Amino acid sequence: xxxxxxIGGTRFIGRHLVxxxxxxxxxxxxxxxxxxxxxxxxxxxxxxxxxxxxxxEALRTAKLTVEPDAVFDCVAYKPGEVATAxxxxxxxxxxxxxxxxxxxxxxxxxxxxxxxxxxxxTDEQATDDSHDSYGxxxxxxxxxxxxxxxxxxxxxxxxxxxxxxxxDYTERLDYWIDRVLNYDRIVVPGDGTNIWHRAYVEDVxxxxxxxxxxxxxxxxxxxxxxxxxxxxxxxDVIADAVGxxxxxxxxxxxxxxxxxxxPDDFILYRDYPHVLSTEKLARLGWESTxxxxxxxxxxxxxxxxxxxxxxxxxxxxxxxxxxxxLDTL
Length: 329
Ligand SMILES: NC(=O)c1ccc[n+]([C@@H]2O[C@H](COP(=O)([O-])OP(=O)(O)OC[C@H]3O[C@@H](n4cnc5c(N)ncnc54)[C@H](OP(=O)(O)O)[C@@H]3O)[C@@H](O)[C@H]2O)c1
Prior knowledge:
Elements: E1 3-7, H1 13-23, E2 27-32, E3 46-50, H2 56-66, E4 70-73, H3 79-88, E5 94-98, H4 123-127, H5 134-150, E6 155-160, E7 162-164, H6 172-182, E8 185-189, E9 198-200, H7 201-214, E10 220-223, H8 231-242, E11 247-251, H9 253-257, H10 279-282, H11 291-304, H12 316-328
Parallel strand pairs: 1-2, 1-4, 2-3, 4-5, 5-6, 6-10, 7-9, 8-11
Residues 8-14, 32-36, 52-54, 74-76, 98, 100, 160, 162-163 line the site of NADP nicotinamide-adenine-dinucleotide phosphate.
Family: Belongs to the NAD(P)-dependent epimerase/dehydratase family.
InterPro entries: Epimerase_deHydtase, NAD(P)-bd_dom_sf
Domain NAD-dependent epimerase/dehydratase: 4-224
């Protein structure tokens, strides 16, 4: 397998995937609309086909032009898109769909492939664009993959939890990096032990390649950091990467409420732990980057970018009020 078609490929996960494929000697073609700058435009190893994945003919033409061995679908948000793709790419050696940890429909620790129940998806949800139906749509995409595999198509899926790292346009981690860079005392909601499993983006990229190369048709593979860190540990790992010390101040619901805040106002806080088992993927030979190294690269990229996570900021004034309330206790 050495000829890859990446649907997407210029923004976040797909961009890292292209780099990983190049490092592993693949010929790569990216297929996208051209709305985002192409970071590989000067790289002769990367071909670009302009097209919209919702245009079946454009996708079919890309298939005939590239004749890929492996197809990586970074931009399937609706089950109908997955159904079209498995049909068009029915004879490739590997079709890998990016699903999501949000596809799981119940809370349990850890969430395991083939064991933990997936979200249901109504016909209405399957075609809408709302955030609320994201998990159901991703789960239905997984079921399309499973059904395709039962017809002999080499389709597989990967399920990343929250992805972080260089070029992360969501700026979720950037909020916390920005706080560590700019303040000595930081409010962390709850007692700091809250866990929302995260996946370093280069590891998601390598997971997609490993699944294409070693995975089994009809299987889904969770992706997440092998070592999980709590929210407070994450702040400490960021501080180590920055080379500074910060004082983490825990604030419970009552102290936050006195300042008009709630724990959910803090990005990457989640009440119930979200943990994906990564054993199945590790059994294919996949490894994850140590968390401190992943954070070092994330902080470096943050410093070189203009990302500050301010869209997630609960408000430093409100935070200062929480700190002064806690100081008086
Ligand atoms: N980020 C996370 O935390 C996370 C977690 C779990 C799962 N996922 C899944 O991972 C996948 C990739 O996420 P991402 O955040 O890396 O995506 P992304 O950066 O938004 O990917 C966008 C890429 O796809 C292209 N694209 C978008 N719409 C297209 C269309 N209609 N036709 C052709 N190309 C199109 C974009 O280029 P153009 O705009 O130029 O077309 C760009 O190259 C998604 O399926 C997402 O659900 C993400």
